[in-house]
Specification:
This protein is mostly helical. The chain has two helices and no strands. Keywords: Coiled coil.
Amino acid sequence: MTVLEKAVQNLAEAIEALESRLDVKLDEAALTEESMTAARRQALAARKQTDNAARGVAAAISDLKAILAEDEKKGGDT
């Protein structure tokens, strides 16, 4: 796993941990249903952004690997 992939994985895990902590805090504080819904909506939006970023990074890594493989096939030392 590359450093970039590991960083994306760590980011996704951090978002999950934050979501879990948010759920616990929301339950403890007994916030109104409206506040809980808004907070969960924000957490979901953050997760979607993280997932999109992860896909983008994965695509970039894939492209770079393909470029390096092509360069290696051509015998180039960059």
